Amino acid sequence: MEITKMSKDEVIEKVKEIVSNIIDIDKEEIDNKTKIINDLGVDSIDLMALVSKIQKETNIKFSIAKLIQDATAAANNNEDITPEDLIKCLEDVLSSKMTQEELDFIRSLYQKSSQITSSETSKIIAELLTIERIAEQIIVLADKDEKKVNPNEG
């Protein structure tokens, strides 16, 4: 499957198909905003299977663990980081904007501590990791890979 030749909707449909096959539910029960961890109850074994299947079908090095690691590093890169700085970092890591509900969730976690731990970042990622965001991340990674292969294009 060549991601760079697919529309965002096609990539989203492919992610839905992969998720539905891994957790054995009807694809029609999954929408773009479905949170794979918090809504579907995907556990760490299912996440590994999901990542493996995405990598196999797309030839892209996609890693949810790397998303969590990057988000934690970005969040804790500055001792005086504000919730808005954290949100910007997470949006950069996830390559997408957040909804008001997601922003409120992050701000509520942030009020409890001046530093965000990897455990809290995992909770944030669980809240933010939707089908659409996975598809967007795959597209971003595919574009980066394409630019490495063809540096004079785009």
Descriptive report:
- The protein has 154 residues and is mainly alpha-helical.
- It is built from seven helices and no strands.
- Helix 3 (64-76) packs across helix 6 (118-128).
- The two termini are 20 Å apart.
- The model has no long low-confidence stretch (mean pLDDT 78).
Sheet bearing the most strands, described? none
What's the oligomerization state?
A: single chain
Number of helices: 7
- Please give the number of β-strands: 0
Strand content: under 5%
Low-confidence stretches: none
Mean pLDDT: 78
Distance between the termini: 20 Å
Rounded radius of gyration (Å): 16 Å
Structural class: mainly alpha
Q: How many structural domains in the coordinates?
A: 1
Please render the helix and strand layout as text.
Blueprint: H1 8-23, H2 44-58, H3 64-76, H4 83-94, H5 100-110, H6 118-128, H7 131-149
Helix pairs in contact: 1-2, 1-7, 3-4, 3-6, 5-6
Describe the structure in brief.
The chain has 154 residues and is mainly alpha-helical. The chain contains 7 helices and no strands.
Q: Which tags fit this structure?
A:
mainly alpha; 7 helices; 63% helix; 154 residues
